[in-house]
Amino acid sequence: DRDTDKKRIEELLEENMVLEIAQKQSMNESAHLGWELEQLSRSTDLADSEKSFVFELNECASSRILKLEKDNQSLQNTIQELRDASLTSRESSLKFVELEKENQQLSKKIEKLQNQIEKEKQSNQDLETLSEELIKDKERLQVIMESLKADTDRQIKDLKQENDHL
Questions:
Q1: Burial 105-140 (b: 16+ CB within 10 A, else e)
Q2: Average pLDDT over residues 6-27
Q3: I want to staple 131 with a disulfide (CB 3.0 to 4.6 A). Which of 54, 60, 77, 89 is the partner?
């Protein structure tokens, strides 16, 4: 009986050592997961700053679009004035040709401005899409972090219970 008890005690001691090693590994994993959580929260802080940056870019792009639209309207008014002037003052065909050239140049500028407006709008939409994707990524990472934390807590609890039981 004593030999059996000694063997059993040795087995339990060995099993206890294995459990202690597993607990240390679990604690190391927990520390690593904590570090990962910290890294993820830092990355979400970066995502928040990127989101802020995106909103600033959107505001900047919007103000630029408004400025380009005002310039466009001003150029259209100038074109209309030139057309009116060309109709009322047919004094010389040379002046008419010059006005027509200027009209064409202004039309090209308007077209360029309209292209710029379209590009700005597309850029604005791209930034909004990027912002939405970043927000979705942040939410997904938060869900993963919560899941990892719950798993870690559960593992720690199980190991403590098992250790207490032993």
A1: eeeeebeebeeebeebeeebeebeeebeebeeebee
A2: 94
A3: 54
Cβ within 8 Å of residue 46, ≥6 positions away? none
* 35 domain-assigned: yes
Count: domains in the chain: 1
DSSP 9-23: HHHHHHHHHHHHHHH
- Helix, strand, coil percent values for the chain (each to nearest 5): 95, 0, 5
Alpha-carbon torsion (5, 9, 11, 15), positive or negative: positive
Q: How confident is the model at residue 90 (pLDDT cuts 50, 70, 90)?
A: low
Let me know if residue 159 belongs to a domain.
no
Mean predicted confidence (pLDDT) in 116-131: 88
Q: What is the pTM of this model?
A: 0.35
Helix axes 93-165, 2-88, angle to 10 degrees: 170
Q: How far apart are CA 142 and CA 147, in angstroms?
A: 8
Residue ranges making up the domain that contains 7: 1-126
In a domain, 165, yes or no: no
